[in-house]
Amino acid sequence: MTVEIKTIDFEPKRQTFGHVARRIGEGKPATRYQEAVLDVQATANFHYKPLWEPEFWQYDEGKTKVVMEDWYKPLDPRQFYYATYNISRANMNQSNERNFTFVEDKGLLEKLPQETKDVLINRLIPVRHLHWGANMNMSEICQRGYGTAVTSPCIFSAGDHLGMAQIIGRIGLELDGQTGDGLETAKTAWMNDASWQGIRKLIEDTLVLKDWFELFVAQTLGVNAIVFDYIYNGQDDAFGAASLPISMLTEFVSDWSKDEVKWSDNVIKVVAAESAGNKATVSEWAKKWIAAAQDALTPFAGADAAKAQADKVRDKAKKLGLEI
Amino acid sequence: MAVKKMGLKQKYAHLTRGLDWETSYQKMDDVFPYDQFEGIKITDWSKWEDPFRLTMDAYWKFQAEKERKLYAVIDAFAQNNGQLNVSDARYINVLKLFLTGVSPLEYQAHRGFAFTGRHMRGVGPRIAAQMQSLDELRHFQTQAHTISHYNKFFDGIAEFQHMHDRVWYLSVPKSFFDDARAAGPFEFMIAIGFAFEYVLTNLLFVPFMSGAAYNGDMSTVTFGFSAQSDESRHMTLGIEVIKFLLEQHPDNLPIVQKWVDKWFWRGFKVLGLVAMMMDYMLPKKVMSWKEAWEIYFTEAGGSLFTDLERYGLKVPKYADVATEMAEHISHQNWAVFYQYTHAAAFHTWTPDKEHLDWLSEKYPNTFDKYYRPRWEMWAKMDEEGKRFYNMALPQLCQTCQIPMAYTEPGDPTQIAFRCTEWNGEMYHFCSDGCKDIFDDEPEKYAQSWLPVHQIFQGNCGGPTVPDVLNWYRLNVGADNMDYVGSPDEQVWNSWKGKAPAEAAE
Ligand SMILES: [Fe+2]
Ligand SMILES: [Fe+2]
Asked: Is the ipTM of this complex over 0.90?
C-alpha cells in the first residue's frame, strides 16, 4: 500500500523576470547572479541632462571610446552579487584576522629591529594611499560606467581597496606602537620621497581620466598588475625577516588580487574581442599605461625590476588578445 | 615599554582620514571637478564628524552575517510556498508597485552614492557615501530576489525593469531620481541623503515593510528588518550632511533651504503612491496615510526642524499644503488608477463596505463628503455592467509628472492648475510647489520626458492604447484591469479553495 499525500499544485507561470528570460531563454530558471545583475541599469527615456556633465545622460554609452553591442557581455566569472561578495570578503578577512592575532601574540612585528621597521614604514605602509587612489578610481568607474555587469563589481573593488588600505594602516600602527607616528612618516614618504613620486604621479594622472574604460585599463593593467604586484610580491629581499609576517598580514591582499584579476582580465578580454576598433583602442591604452606604470615603478624598484614587471604584464596583455 | 593605546575614534581617524592627500601632479580642482559649481562653500572638510565609524572589515562581517540569515529565509519561503500565507492576493499588487516603482530607485541610489562617494572632497563623507552605495545595491538585489518568487505565480511583476523606463505613472518615481542624479553632488546628498532618507523614509520604507508584516508577507518583512540597520546608518549620514553644510558657511543656508523646499515637495508627490497603497491596497491596514503623515511628518519632522532652527533652517515651504493634502491624496490617486486600470500594471478594485467604513472613520473631514459617494457610484455602475473607464489621455504636471487630478488647497471640488510661459512655450503644473521648482530651473524641467507627450509624439509604440501597452510589455488581460476576474484571483482561489476540499477527501 502507498500513502499518497495530496498537495496543492504550484505550477509556476514563469521562471524569472522578462529581461532575464530574454537573455537566458524562456522557461529556464535564473541564478541569483543573473537576477541581481542582468539589465538592471536603466537605459532609456532619461529626464534631465546632468548639471555637472550636460553632454551626457547619467548612464551613457558615450562616456567611453570603446563600443559594445551589449554591455552585458563582460560578465563576472565570480558571479558576485552583494551577498556573495560580502560573504567572500568576510571569509577572507577572517583568516587574515587570525594572522593578525598570531603575529601580535608572538610579537613578530614588535620584535623586529628598528631598521627593518623603518624599511616597512618607508616601502610598504605608503601603499595604503595608493589603495585609496585605487578606491577612488573604482568608485568612479562604478558611477561613470555603463551596465551593471561591469559597474557593480567596481563598487566591490572600491570596497576591497578601502579594506586593504585599512589592513596596511593597521600594520603601520603595529609597527609604530599604536601611536600613528609611523603612518605620518609613511605619508611624508608618499608625498616627498623620490622613490614614491613616480607612483604618486601615476595614480594622480589616472584620477583625472574621463574615459572610464581607459581608466579601467590603467587601473587594472597598470596600477594593479605592475605597481601593487611589485610592492607586495617583489620586496622579499628588502623586507628580510619581516617578509614572512608581512605576507601573513597581507594574505587578504594576495587572495584579493587572484580574485580580482579573474574578473578584470575577463572584462578586458571580452571588450577587446568585440571589434577591431575596440582591440586597437584597448591595446593603445594598455601600451600607454603599462609604459607609464613601468616609469612610475622605476625610481621605486630600479630600472631592471620595473622593466621585468612591465614585460610580464605585456605578455599577459597579449594573452588577453591585445596588440602590444 | 608601556604603550598608550589610542582611542577607537582616533584609530578610526588614522585608518580613514589619514588616507587622502593633497594632489600635486594634478590640480585638486581637476581631481574633484564637480564640487564647486553649486555654490556650496566648504572651508574645512576635517570638521566632518563621522556619523558611524565602520571600518571595511567590520562592514563585511556585519553585512555577510545579515545576508546569510536573509537568504536562508528567502530560500525557505520559496520552498514552503510562503505566498500562501499572505492575507489576500490583492496584497501582491503592493509588491508590484514596490518592485516597478521603488526598487529601481534603490539601484539609482547605488550609482548616485558612488558618484558622491568619489566626488566630495572630504574623505569622511566619501567613505560613508561609498558604504551607502554598497547598501543600496544590496537593497535592489535583495528586493529582486525576494519578489522573484512572487513573480513565478503572479502577473505584473516580470517586466519591472522595462516598465520603469516607460510606463506613465512610473515616470513619477523615475523622474524624481533622475532629477537627483542630474543634480550636483551636494544637492544629491540633500535630496536623497537628507530629504528622502531622513525626513521621508518613515513614510516610504516603513509603510511598505509594516504592510508586509500585517499581511503575512514573511520574506519582504525579513528583508525590511535586515535593511533596518542600513537605513539607520543612512539617516545619520543624511543628518550629518545637512548640519555640516550649514555649519561650514553662512552662504550655504539659502542654497540648502531651497533644496530642502524642493526635495520635500518632490518627495511628497512621489509618496502619494504610498498613500494610496496604505489606504486602498493593503487588505489588512496598518494605519491611514493621514495618521502616518501626522506621526512621521508633523510630529517627527516638526521636532527635526525645531532642532535645525539653530542653523536658520526653516520648515519646508508648502509643508502646510502637504499636510492639508494628506486628507485627499490617497483618494485622488486611487481614483486615477481606477479610471486608468486598463493602462496600469497592477489590479484595482472598488473598496467594499467594510473598507469604505474604515476610510470614513479615518477621514471624518473629507471622505464621506467628497470620496465615498464617488466610490459608491462607481461600484454601482460596475454592478450594472457599466464599469467606468477614462479613455482620454490625461495632462501631466511638468514637474512631478502626475496627472492633473489634485485639487486646490482649501477647495476639494476644484482641480488645481498652474502654468508658466517659458521660452515661448506654456508649461503646466499641478501645484504651486511644482511650479516654483520649474520656475527656479526651467532649463532642467523643460526637458522632462512626459509620457503623454511622448505618446502623442509617436515615441511609445504607436498612436492607440493597445500599441502603447504593447510597447510597455504590459500583458493585457493579465497585468492590468480589476482584480476581480484576473488570473491572479483565479490562481489564488484555486490554492485557497482546493486545499481544504482535497484534504477532506
Ligand atoms: Fe535603500
Ligand atoms: Fe506636480
From this structure: yes
Query: Is the Cβ of A194 closer than 8 Å to some Cβ of chain B?
Result: no
Q: What residues in chain A have per-residue pLDDT under 50?
A: none
Look up the pTM and report it. 0.96
**Domains (range + CATH), chain A:** 83-319 (1.10.620.20)
B308 has pLDDT over 50? yes
What is d(CA B283, CA B488) in angstroms, rounded to the nearest whole number?
Answer: 15
Give the cell for residue B75. Answer: 530560500
> Which one of A94, A101, A135, A142 makes the best mutation probe of the B interface by having the most chain B beta carbons within 10 Å?
A142
* Residue B485 phi, psi (nearest 5): 95, 0
Pick the CATH number of B8-18+48-504 from 3.90.1640.10, 1.10.620.20, 3.30.1050.10, 3.40.50.880: 1.10.620.20
Q: Which ligand is nearest to the CA of B172?
A: 2
User: Within 10 A of B44 (CB to CB), how many other CB atoms are there?
Assistant: 10
Segment A208-242, tens digit of pLDDT? 999 999 999 999 999 999 999 999 999 999 999 99
For residue B233, which ligand has an atom nearest its CA? 1
Closest CA to A63 of A80, A84, A92, A41: A41
Return the sign of the alpha-carbon dihedral for residues B160, B161, B162, B168. Answer: positive
Single-letter amino acid, residue B123? V
User: Most B CBs within 10 Å: which of A99, A100, A104, A162, as the mutation test of the B interface?
Assistant: A162
Which DSSP symbol is given to B348?
A: B
* Axis-axis angle for helices B329-339, B252-276 (nearest 10): 60
Alpha helices in chain A (DSSP H): 18-24, 32-37, 82-106, 114-123, 127-144, 148-175, 181-192, 194-207, 212-217, 229-233, 236-239, 243-249, 251-273, 276-301, 303-319
CB contact under 8 A, B145 and A140: no
DSSP B426: E
pLDDT in tens, B396-412: 999 999 999 899 999 99
Q: Domain residue spans in chain B?
A: 8-18+48-504
Decide if A166 and B56 are in contact by the 8 Å CB cutoff.
yes
CA A100 to CA A110: how far, in whole Å? Answer: 12
Which residues share a beta bridge with B414? Answer: none
